[in-house]
Amino acid sequence: xxxxxxxxxxxxxxxxxxxxxxxxxxxxxxxxxxxxxxxxxxxxxxxxxxxxxxxxxxxxxxxxxxxxxxxxxxxxxxxxxxxxxxxxxxxxxxxxxxxxxxxxxxxxxxxxxxxxxxxxxxxxxxx
Length: 127
Hints:
mainly beta, 7-stranded mixed beta sheet, 4-stranded antiparallel beta sheet, 11 strands, globular
């Protein structure tokens, strides 16, 4: 059972992309709404970093300072999917983007608080 990230691609600086994170397999999709979801990214030679997170009902969100005001996270529990709308993209946003599920009470930024990682989707922003 995994979360599958998709929607990455090559885009020019200032452009937009929308990533999707969808649950697949087993009963995970049936209980999707009981998990908070986090988006993370890992650039070349860098550690995996928190990008955005969303609570179970979708009303609570959290963003890293580097993407606040440019990225928007949302979810559709009926479709077991979380979205990450990325606007005003910069070259420093280039990374492999992952989503993962969390069971903590609050949205945390440490990757060790998340599980069921998918293989990620590549975002490349050309300057």
